[in-house]
Amino acid sequence: MTPYFFGYGSLVNRDTHDYGDCHPAQLHGWRRAWVRTELRDRVFLTVHMHGNSVIDGLVAAVPNADWGALDLREYGYNRLSSGGAVKHPLKPAPDVEHYAIPPDAVGRQGDHVILLSYLDVVVQGFYREFGEEGVQRFFDTTDGWETPVFNDRDAPRYPRHRILKSEETELVDHHLNQLSALLK
């Protein structure tokens, strides 16, 4: 049976990959968080176990059942079995895995920032897949918003950045304002 993965950040934006057979899904018992690590000089979006939390995302087939390319894209993350925690429309239900930063690699020190170009891509994906309500759920089910956001829209540093429509940019900016996020 074809293996699938659950994406909960930039992988929700179909313009950042060419993985076929994508479907909206939810991961139960996990919550997103922006975290620092020594692996990179920017903040990662990861997930951690969290009681009854539910997060939106996409499941997608692993191309040619070859995890190698996907593992390379998700450098710094561990691939984990979702153990039935992902709810999706696929029948019969395939095995689904997801990625998370290992807890021992998460650090609280440093001046790491969330790249706005990265956040833009993530929000664009959630908006396209789940509408404005899905964007609200993304912000509500993600921790770490005390981390400064670096405005790199004019010179994007995120390698898979995308151009946003004005309503998408306004949506990102609105939510950051609601959070009183620190922009650098």
For this structure, the CATH topology is Hypothetical upf0131 protein ytfp
The total of helices stands at 3
CATH architecture: Roll
- Euclidean distance between termini CA atoms: 47 Å
Description of the molecule:
With 184 residues, this protein is of the alpha/beta class. It has one domain (4-178): Hypothetical upf0131 protein ytfp (Roll). It has three helices and ten strands. The strands form two sheets. Strands 1, 2, 3, 4, 5, 6, 7 and 9 form an eight-stranded mixed beta sheet that branches. Strands 8-10 form a two-stranded parallel sheet. β2 and β3 (44-61) form a beta hairpin. α2 crosses α3 (166-178). The longest helix is centred in the C-terminal third of the chain and has 25 residues, at 116-140. The radius of gyration is 16 Å and the shape is globular. The chain starts with a strand and ends in a 6-residue tail after the last helix. The model has no long low-confidence stretch (mean pLDDT 92).
